[in-house]
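Private note to self, pasted from the team thread so I don't lose it. Backbone tokens:
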């Protein structure tokens, strides 16, 4: 997927400035597609030049005017074409898994702190996902009923929640294995 497609989706959900778009990436779509502020601004300029986006200047008091981006007709056509293209299933490149296998040739216990660090990162991400789910989809302040876009955002978020839960369970299994191997090596 190109960053352009993620930007088109985000701007179709809600028009906004480059800054607002970057904040949305940090808060929601960025869980599944990351981009720096610089990358987003660079791609926005290119998409504007290609006619995929429309831009209007929004005056602001005591601050420079901001540009608000919306998706132009060619941008909608480009997104539609991409949505109809097949997508290859993703391959997982998992450096930690290779390290775990490689630990057979060193001290497996040496990986415990690294696996714990990964587990904490996934646990933190799961908490952010669950907080976002309560805020945007299931909590008392969430809109009822959800519209089509919200339903699709929620199903993607549920996939992320399931992935994080599966990863945490796997990392717990890895930690149990590493602790067991460490105990066996030390004779306890």
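Design output:
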């Amino acid at each position: 997927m190109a960053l352009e497609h993620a930007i088109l989706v985000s701007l179709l959900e809600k028009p906004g400035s480059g800054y607002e778009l970057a904040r949305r990436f940090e808060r929601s779509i960025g869980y599944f597609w990351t981009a720096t502020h610089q990358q987003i601004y660079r791609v926005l300029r290119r998409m504007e030049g290609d006619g995929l986006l429309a831009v209007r200047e929004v005056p602001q008091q005591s601050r420079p005017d901001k540009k608000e981006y919306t998706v132009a007709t060619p941008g909608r056509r480009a997104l539609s074409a991409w949505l109809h293209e097949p997508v290859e299933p993703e391959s997982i490149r998992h450096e930690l898994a290779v390290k775990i296998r490689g630990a057979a040739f060193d001290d497996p216990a040496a990986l415990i702190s690294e696996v714990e660090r990964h587990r904490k990162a996934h646990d933190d991400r799961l908490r952010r996902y669950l907080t976002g789910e309560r805020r945007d989809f299931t909590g008392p302040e969430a809109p009822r009923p959800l519209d089509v876009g919200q339903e699709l955002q929620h199903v993607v978020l549920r996939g992320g929640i399931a992935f994080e839960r599966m990863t945490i369970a796997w990392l717990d299994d890895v930690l149990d294995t590493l602790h067991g191997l460490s105990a066996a090596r030390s004779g306890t």
